[in-house]
Amino acid sequence: MDINKVGVLGAGTMGAGIAQVGIEAGFPVVLIDIESTVLAKAVKGLDKAWQKAVDKGKLTEEGKHKWQSLLTTSGDLKDFADCDVVIEAIVENMDIKKKVFQQLDDICPAHTILASNTSALSITEIASSTKRADKIVGMHFFNPVPVMKLVEVIPGAETTDEAAAAVMELCFKIKKEPVKAKEVPGFIVNRLLVPYLNEAAFAYQEGVASAEEIDKAMKLGANMPIGPLALCDMVGIDVLLSVCEYYWREFGDSKYRPSLALKSKCRAGHLGIKTGKGFYDYTK
Questions:
Q1: Partner of 112 for a Cys bridge, out of 96, 107, 108, 190, CB 3.0 to 4.6 A?
Q2: Nearest Cα to 242, choosing from 118, 87, 123?
Q3: 284 falls in which pLDDT band (50, 70, 90)?
Q4: What average pLDDT does the chain have?
Q5: Do 78 and 49 contact (CB within 8 A), yes or no?
Q6: In the predicted model, what is the mean pLDDT of residues 152-161?
Q7: What integer is the mean pLDDT of 158-166?
């Protein structure tokens, strides 16, 4: 299947990044968000990134204008009607995703592949809200999208080999390295990463060491580029807790139970960098 035009739903950090790599690979991209302020911020961010490339001599003014011309923004899902693939990058909420995929199913032509950037949720369940389960695929990018090379490609129970292959090929065209993963909660990376972060929160909760000491130990002793608790703050403690609770429900295994430290931070509204406090205080 040929993919000539890409749609991206959600203009937040992930959606804007996905739009950027699509455009830089030469694809016309339709970026849609219901919040006009979010769209405006995304466009401003893209222009800033491309101007920076011009200033460094890595991109010509002509090249910048060409990339800008490939971007279309909208607040109406109907503008996805001529896209060959639509990549959803909205909130990690199953009910919301199913509602949106049902709408996309009604709007997009029969050949369009609908992909989700979900980091943990069931592709099969998302697909159940549509009449094209054979063309629903997980396409999990990593933040920051323009820098991180990996994309996890996750077929659902009814996804065809052709649809999965088309998404794999798209990944190569946008200069990413796809890895196909079985549909299990968290897929590969987050299946391994989230329990690690949760265990660091348990160590903090039990007073094994301070947040600074735990992070220092993992950076110096395991050569991690960032400590686990600082990463919790970066990801968002509420997001991490939600994923832990999802694993706990899905697997029914006590090793996935969320730490009380995560719950306590969320109850206090200390969600990490985005609120100014988490395991660390960013207001100082």
A1: 108
A2: 118
A3: confident
A4: 96
A5: no
A6: 98
A7: 97
Q: What is the pLDDT of residue 1?
A: 79
- The three state secondary structure string of the chain is CCCCCEEEECCCHHHHHHHHHHHHCCCCEEEECCCHHHHHHHHHHHHHHHHHHHHCCCCCHHHHHHHHHCEEEECCHHHHCCCCEEEECCCCCHHHHHHHHHHHHHHCCCCCEEEECCCCCCHHHHHCCCCCHHHEEEEEECCCCCCCCEEEEEECCCCCHHHHHHHHHHHHHCCCEEEECCCCCCCCHHHHHHHHHHHHHHHHHCCCCCHHHHHHHHHHHCCCCCCHHHHHHHHCHHHHHHHHHHHHHHHCCHHHCCCHHHHHHHHCCCCEHHHCECCCECCC
By C-alpha distance, which of 143, 107, 94, 127 is closest to 30?
107
* Alpha carbon distance 225, 232 (integer Å): 14
- Measured CA to CA, the distance from residue 2 to residue 11 in angstroms comes to 25
188's tokens: 């590969």
Strands across the sheet with 177-180, in order? Answer: 71-74, 29-32, 6-9, 85-88, 113-116, 136-141, 150-155, 177-180
Catalytic residues: 119, 140, 152, 190
Cβ-Cβ contacts under 8 Å for 162 (sequence gap 6 or more): 1
Residue 212 has pLDDT above 90, yes or no: yes
Determine the average pLDDT of the residues in 78-91. 97
